[in-house]
Design a protein that fits this description.
The structure holds two protein chains of two kinds. Chain A folds into three domains: 94 residues, no CATH class; 166 residues, Alpha-Beta Complex (Sulfite Oxidase, Chain A, domain 2), CATH 3.90.420; 126 residues, Immunoglobulin-like (Sandwich). Helix content of chain A is 18%, strand content 27%. Chain A is built from ten helices and 24 strands. A five-stranded mixed beta sheet of chain A has the order 5-4-13-8-9. In chain A, strands 6, 7, 10, 11 and 12 form a five-stranded antiparallel beta sheet that branches. Chain A has a five-stranded antiparallel beta sheet with strand order 19-18-22-23-24, with no helix packed on it. The radius of gyration of chain A is 23 Å and the shape is globular. Chain B has a domain of 107 residues: Cytochrome c-like domain (Cytochrome Bc1 Complex, Chain D, domain 2), CATH 1.10.760.10. Helix content of chain B is 36%, strand content 6%. Chain B is extended and about 65 Å long. Chain B starts with a helix and ends in a 5-residue tail after the last strand. The chains are: A alpha+beta, B mainly alpha.
């Protein structure tokens, strides 16, 4: 397939703003990789691992490499995003560290550089950013690294002036301030949100080089708030209510229709994320959480709920988040994010240090329930070995798995597959394509949950491949 | 050790007491928090359904819509609705049925959108991109008429309003099916074996 064909396909795909270019995304990924290749803290570091690299020298090398580059890059050289640069003493045990501030918020180590990377859509307002899964440990995504998908930028909302309205087929329309919302009995759950477009570049050929690019549109936080059923009971849902419209207070006034059964079952309105108020880009001050359903339905900056007897057929649930198949028919209301897993270490563009022991590590999740089992293959799916699940193992939540691997130095194809507690087994890419077909290079765009393959070459270089 | 046990039992006992009193205690819903919004407050909001519920009064023609389009839309969606920074709006009929993995379907309002009411709803709430929710109802009806006329879905002299918009039949009205998942996958094929690598940079 020629590059221009792919570009044309990308321009034509409705998931993208039309002028967006896969080329630009690949360039952004390459720029980020070039940066990380000289960063000893990065899993993509390509320098001499045995050498003790002085931070200042390292920063100098970045600055030199990026001399002709942008101001952003030189700012990064001063201190990575989210960090403060401090002088590094030769021996920290022979000097006082920097003082504790009277009040502070905190920052990460100046030696840590992982960042979200944006897909270069036509505008930076209707766009998305990928979580750097390659660095992750445990199951929680740091709030500042949680993937983003917004349709009209990040809304800036003063919570003192924000209200949630409930109207439509209710006995008593209601208006809640954020103070009101916080008075209700609260719930909290650790759960993943995944964009249904996660992996859309990977249908017909391996495209992105890193796991951030292939799988970075999924993240996990602890979300705290109020059950949606509590809020709906305040208004009193009428007998003929079947659907619920959730509407955001951003410039896109993002809307999705939600079946009432799901709304009453386990949805909640989150004001908390990982122990503090949710981040602006995640919908501050209030976000609808729909456990296990595709990310775009978790309406951010939630301002209104309208109860109805039928779906509204909004733009997002007709022309956008629908899955077109070769028959010309598109699957609509494909809500659940199905069982999926991904090896995050080792993964694309990393280099192994030679034969020997490696702990393969990754994440598994299912929007339909709890991960029951994860298996790992090191020979392209011929043989499968049970991986160890690291607790906690929670429903509708990233689950960390590990597998002890003795690499013999020969070419290997690493894969993982998960089984959830409904018995559903994560399919191969071949199985998905056999069933859903390829309507263009991006397939049916959404809901690609196939097994990912990473090839480890005999020189230790890991790359994204298709092998099924 | 007995101290620890006693402490543990004491704590458990206390928790039990708390939970007992809590189960007896919570007020029956509703809690009564929040207020009743005024009709005027709720009128600020709208959401349009395919049967026309939610459509406001007002009307517009393609001729009026062309003016609105040129002023508000063309810079992103192109002078001929062919797309640019914003989505392509017309064309693409016949491209949805497609077995060719190298050729992308062209999804536009004309070829893909199942309901004309969605155009009104979406344009009114989000457009223009640099000033969302700033067009009058007449302007939204008019620009909807212009797009549908350019897409050859309605005759050029149609006046769109809350009544006529709901009667517009979109070409892809029957193009959607219910979610068949969870799917029953055929057995994993091992032969022929598909193996692809990222092409080296040019």
């Amino acid at each position: 397939m020629s590059k221009s064909t792919v570009d044309a396909a990308v321009a034509g795909a409705s998931a993208y703003a039309q002028a967006s270019s896969l080329d630009e995304l690949l360039k952004a990924e390459a720029r980020q990789l070039a940066h990380e290749r000289v960063d000893p803290a990065s899993p993509y570091f390509a320098g001499d691992r045995s050498a003790r690299i002085d931070r200042r020298r390292f920063l100098g090398s970045i600055a030199a490499a990026a001399a002709a580059s942008t101001a952003v890059r030189s700012a990064a050289a001063a201190a990575p995003l989210g960090a403060v640069e401090h002088e590094v003493p030769p021996d920290a045990s022979k000097a006082q560290g920097y003082p504790l501030d009277d009040t502070s918020y905190g920052s990460r180590s100046q030696f840590e550089t992982e960042v979200r990377v944006r897909f270069k859509t036509a505008t930076p307002q209707s766009s998305w950013t990928f979580t750097p899964l390659q660095n992750g440990c445990g199951i929680i995504t740091p709030s500042g690294l949680h993937f983003e998908r917004s349709h009209a930028g990040t809304a800036v909302i003063d919570p003192a002036k924000h209200f949630l309205y409930v109207n439509g087929l209710v006995k008593k329309p209601r208006k809640f301030s954020m103070r009101d919302i916080r008075r209700f009995p609260s719930v909290s759950r650790i759960m993943f949100i995944e964009c249904s477009g996660n992996g859309l570049t990977e249908w017909s050929k391996p495209t992105m080089r890193t796991v951030q690019g292939t799988h970075g549109l999924t993240s996990t936080s602890e979300w705290s708030g109020v059950p949606l059923s509590t809020i709906l009971n305040e208004a009193g849902v009428k007998g003929n209510a079947k659907w619920l419209l959730a509407e955001g207070g951003d410039g896109a006034a993002m809307t999705r229709s939600i079946p009432m059964a799901k709304a009453m079952k386990d949805c909640f309105l989150a004001y908390g994320q990982n122990g503090e108020a949710i981040r602006p880009e995640q919908g501050y001050p209030l976000r609808l959480m729909i456990p296990g359903f595709e990310g775009n339905m978790h309406i951010k900056w939630l301002r209104r709920l309208e109860v109805s007897d039928a779906p509204f057929m909004t733009r997002e649930e007709t022309s956008k988040y629908t899955d077109l198949r070769p028959s010309g028919k598109a699957v609509q209301f494909s809500f659940e994010m199905e069982a999926k897993s991904i090896i995050t270490f080792p993964s694309g563009e990393m280099t192994l240090d030679g034969p020997g022991f490696y702990e393969i590590s990754g994440l598994a999740w299912s929007g339909r329930g709890t991960v029951r089992r994860v298996e790992v293959s090191t020979d392209g799916g011929k043989n499968w070995h049970q991986a160890a699940l690291q607790g906690p193992v929670l429903p509708i939540c990233h689950t960390r798995f590990h597998y002890a691997w003795q690499w013999d130095g020969k070419t290997a194809i690493l894969q993982s597959r998960c089984v959830d507690d409904t018995g559903y087994v994560q399919p191969t890419l071949g199985q998905v394509i056999a069933l859903r077909g390829l309507d263009g290079p991006l397939g049916s765009i959404y809901h690609l949950n196939a097994i990912q393959s990473w090839q480890v070459a005999s020189d230790g270089k890991v790359s994204n491949v298709h092998d099924y | 050790m007995s101290t620890i046990t006693e402490r543990f039992l004491g704590a458990a006992g206390a928790a039990l007491v708390v939970s007992t009193s809590a189960s007896a205690g919570p007020p029956a819903a509703p809690y009564g928090f929040g207020t009743t919004p005024s009709q005027a407050e709720l009128e600020r909001f709208f959401a349009v359904m395919p049967d026309g519920r939610g459509l406001p009064s007002g009307s517009g023609s393609a001729e009026q819509g062309k003016v609105v389009y040129e002023q508000q839309c063309a810079s992103c969606h192109g002078a001929n609705l062919q797309g640019g920074i914003g989505d392509r709006l017309v064309g693409g009929r016949g491209t949805l049925v497609n077995e060719d993995p190298t050729k992308a379907p062209v999804k536009t309002i004309e070829s893909y959108w199942p309901y004309a009411t969605t155009i009104f709803d979406y344009v009114k709430r989000t457009m223009p991109f640099n000033a969302p929710d700033s067009l009058s109802n007449d302007e939204v009806y008019a620009v909807t008429a212009y797009i549908l006329t350019e897409a050859k879905i309605i005759p050029p002299d149609t006046i769109l309003d809350a009544m006529t918009l709901t009667t517009v039949k979109m070409p892809n009205r029957d193009g959607f099916i219910a979610d068949p998942r969870p799917e029953k996958f055929p057995p994993a094929a091992k032969s022929p074996h598909q193996s692809l690598m990222i092409a080296p940079p040019k």
